[in-house]
Structures are given as structure tokens and as C-alpha cells.
Known about the structure:
The protein has helices at 19-26, 36-45, 81-88, 104-110, 121-127, 169-181, 187-190; strands spanning 6-11, 29-33, 51-55, 69-75, 95-103, 130-138, 151-158. It has 200 residues and is α/β, with parallel strands linked by helices. A seven-stranded mixed sheet has the order 3-2-1-4-5-7-6. α2 links the parallel β2 (29-33) and β3 (51-55). It is globular. The termini are far apart. The mean pLDDT is 88.
Amino acid sequence: xxxxxxxxxxxxxxxxxxxxxxxxxxxxxxxxxxxxxxxxxxxxxxxxxxxxxxxxxxxxxxxxxxxxxxxxxxxxxxxxxxxxxxxxxxxxxxxxxxxxxxxxxxxxxxxxxxxxxxxxxxxxxxxxxxxxxxxxxxxxxxxxxxxxxxxxxxxxxxxxxxxxxxxxxxxxxxxxxxxxxxxxxxxxxxxxxxxxxxxx
Length: 200
């Protein structure tokens, strides 16, 4: 029965510019906010039946504390976007979809095709677990103050079965990281520290 429950989850609601509209549309949101002052303001504006607020760091959050199937949305901080996306991968089996606003260059790397200049570690890791769709760009003028970069919205839908199922997920991540760590190296040399030359 628990699997049928859908929890709408917002990462970093901030001043609720987006979260406010989500609450109006679907009625209730669970949100994780690291800033205590912003959290206090949110609790003043929204009653618990409209916003269930958790104070904490998304990188350290225990997702097992949230029941049911998750739909996650957020305007992710650019400085921790990649670590946060990787931190969410272990719970992909419990997620219906994720919609994030990220720096355009990050989204372009996420959805890049093999062989393209932007294809790399982020592309391989995320595409192994999600179907990724870049939806649209958001210009600097949509923000106050306006940033110096363009943002993009990406949809992440977990694959029923991982594209490249790995017996050891941590080892897979190490191999991918080593393979793309120094692009000027041959793949043979890049992986030399992880396996013998005969294996490579």
C-alpha cells in the first residue's frame, strides 16, 4: 500500500517562488530547506497541512525517512548540482520523476550524446539510470538579481532497469570517473590504476 502513496518533494524551496505555485496546484508539498531563517519564514506563510518542512542538507539527507513514491523538484544550487544528482541515484527505484532547474551547461552535459564534446562522466552516470529530457531554457531575466548564466529545466525519469547494470555500483562510478578524468590520456592509461594492463 505504501508504494501507491506519492510524495511531492521540493528541494530548497527558498522564498517559495516556485513552491508557492506547486502548493496552490497540488495542495501539499514536503520540502527540505537548509537555511533556518528561510524555513522560519516558510512556516509563517504555510500551515503544516500545506507544507511539511524539513530543515537539513540535501547532500546528507536520509531519504528512507520519506515514505512512498517520490516526485522531486528543485532549483538546484549550481555549486553542488553534480554531487546532489549523484546522491539521489541510490533512491532512483523509489522515484517517479525529477524536475530540476540547473545551469544550462550542466543540463547539456547530462543529456549529451556519446561522441559529442560535452559527453562525459555526468552523461554516462546519469544516463545509466535515467531517461533525461531537456525541456527548455530559462534566461537570466527570470531571476532577481539576474545571474550571469542561462538555466535549463531537465526531466529525469528513472529507467525500470539500469542501462548498464553493475554488480558493484561504486566500482562502476570509479571506472567512469577515471575514464573521463583526463581526456588527453588514452583509455588504457586512464584505467591503469584500476586494473592491470592485461585486463585493459
